[in-house]
Amino acid sequence: MTRLVYLGNVSSLQLSEDRCSGCGMCTVVCPHTVMVLVDGRTVISDLDACMECGACARNCPEDAITVESGVGCAQAVINTALGRSSVTCCTITGESEEDTDGTPPVGSGSGCC
Amino acid sequence: MGDTQCTSSASCSGTETVSELGPSSAAEQPLPPSIIGTLDTPAGPVPQVSTTLSAADIFGMFRVRWGIRRMNYTVRPGLYAVGLPDRQSEILVTANYRMTFDLLRSALDGLDVWVLVLDTKGINVWCAAGKGTFGTDELVARIKDSRLASVTDRSRIILPQLGAPGVAAHRVKELSGFRVVYGPIEARDIAGFLAGNLRASPAMRVKSFPIRERAALIPMELVPSLKYAVLIGAALALLSGLFGRGTFTSDALHAGFTAAISLSLAVVAGAVLVPLLLPWLPGRAFSLKGFWTGTAAAAVLLALSSASGTTLTNLETASWVLLIPALSSFLGLNFTGSSTFTSLAGVRREMRIAVPLQAGALILGLAIWILALIFSRGGSL
Ligand code: SF4
Ligand code: SF4
User: Fold this and answer.
1) C-alpha B93 – ligand 1 centre gap (Å)
2) Cβ count near B55 (within 10 Å)
3) From ligand 1's centre to the CA of B78, what distance in Å?
4) Could you tell me if A9 lies within 8 Å of chain B, comparing CB atoms?
5) Least CB-CB distance to B161: which of A29, A72, A90?
6) Among residues 7-36 of chain B, which lie with CB inside 8 Å of chain A?
7) Is the CB of A36 under 6 A from ligand 2?
8) Is the CB of A25 under 6 A from ligand 1?
9) Which of A19, A71, B6, B360 is the most buried if burial means most Cβ atoms within 10 Å?
10) What are the boundaries of each domain within chain A?
11) CA quadruple B278, B284, B285, B291: dihedral positive or negative?
12) Structure pTM?
């Protein structure tokens, strides 16, 4: 089957290579093989495949990754624009809150249902 | 463990609200998850669950896929046993959405494992991870609450990879002592993962979106769009009846019939064909994919109306030729929420361009429809 890829050149994913230890955790959690380990160094190899789920940033022990994570859902964008925040299924919350577990904020939180 | 996709259970296009559900109602009224026994453990009695799905379980999956009482389909959070696990058995972590739990346990036939169910308010793993309810804090709290450490000598727990957006593995280790291992995305791969020394093949780590999964999502797209289609069709029939030149009945019937055909075409194009044909429709933007299927649907309308001896006026035809692709494009755009690879930044970019065009076509189409009502027909059906 043709590999499904969404719009190109939009992902907010960024990797600071000088902080990266090459542990490979981000390559494990990414559902779209965006990052690969090359000679012990992690590189973004397929930025356009990134869906901004935030798994890599959340699990990077060195805080080397930032991404404005959220759900790629038109209904969520509409619900948020209409101010239907709590009752409807899908919304995107704007604030970048510091996570209670101490990891750096992964950008805006969001929820699908 | 055992997510199918974020979306089968939590598609953004679902329109039901959860306002009447308190945050704890999911945990208070769980459906019994096919419990076949109880194990006595140092952590107290642990329910033992079957790996076979009953007819009721399968009907339940079917029901929630159609969006019926989807929000209440939960399992009580806590520790469960599959088979006869001991102190060396692996520990799998999952969400308390009943369908997720059922898919996981049905993939564990013949295995002896512990299953720790987190309270994700009845939401599947991936969506809950995005929201943070399948998250570090809940996991650490549930490990303590369930007294997991007292039933196992192991210090590792296996999480579904799609839980990773909510869980920081290194923080869980610091806070609970348990090491998080991310297992495969699909429940059906878990047995192979366990047998293969906890190694996931690259294919187990990639979230694909095969036609089988896309087809399973169609009901969730179809139900809300049909509701709106019925409302719109009824409104158009009523307007025609009231303001048309013929009798109320003949005008309402004509407009209602035309609207029923046209809206069905638009809904099929946007809510059925876009999911099914997703990889093959040109363009990356979902609104564009919906536009193509909508254009094809409009062509079908033209063919139908000429084949049936043209009961449609030119203005009516023109209005539907605009409305069908616009509606289908919008439904296509909505499918972003059910897909497994769209980014928020991408959806925002797509919407900035697509929504004004869709709205423009919609307004123009309705304006022409009103003109058709004012200027044309003499009331023949
Ligand atoms: S998880 Fe962080 S430190 Fe580890 S390889 Fe990825 S970017 Fe580097
Ligand atoms: S945000 Fe998600 S899809 Fe993008 S690189 Fe990170 S893990 Fe992969």
Assistant:
1) 24
2) 7
3) 32
4) no
5) A29
6) 7, 9-19
7) no
8) yes
9) A71
10) 3-66
11) negative
12) 0.81
CA–CA separation, B364 vs B237, rounded Å? Answer: 19
Q: Provide the residue type at B39 as one letter.
A: L
Question: Which helix (H) or strand (E) covers residue A43, if one does?
Answer: strand A41-44
Atom of ligand 2 nearest to the CA of A52: 1
Pocket probe for ligand 2: among A6, A25, A43, A50, the residue whose CB has the most ligand atoms within 8 Å is A50
Place of tokens 């050149």: A9
Distance CA B187, CA B104 (A): 5
Q: Is the ipTM of this complex over 0.85?
A: no
CA gap B50, B66 in Å, rounded: 25
Q: Do B132 and A109 touch (CB under 8 A)?
A: yes
- Cβ atoms within 10 A of the Cβ of B329, count? 31
Which residue among A9, A15, A28, A35 has the greatest number of ligand 2 atoms within 8 angstroms of its CB, and so is best to mutate?
A35
Question: What are the residues facing A65 on neighbouring strands?
Answer: A15
What pLDDT tens digit does each residue of chain B (381 aa) get? 433 334 333 333 332 323 223 334 444 445 566 888 888 889 889 898 888 888 878 888 887 877 766 667 888 899 999 999 999 999 999 999 888 998 899 999 999 999 999 998 888 898 888 888 999 999 999 999 999 999 999 999 999 999 999 999 999 999 999 999 999 999 899 999 999 989 888 889 889 899 988 998 898 889 889 999 999 999 998 988 888 777 888 888 888 888 999 999 999 999 999 999 999 999 999 999 999 999 999 999 988 888 876 677 888 889 999 999 999 999 999 999 888 999 888 899 999 999 999 999 999 999 999 888 887 644 443
* Residue-range domains of chain B with CATH: 18-207 (3.40.50.11600), 212-376 (no CATH)
CATH for A3-66 (3.40.50.300, 3.30.450.20, 1.10.357.120, 3.30.70.20) = 3.30.70.20
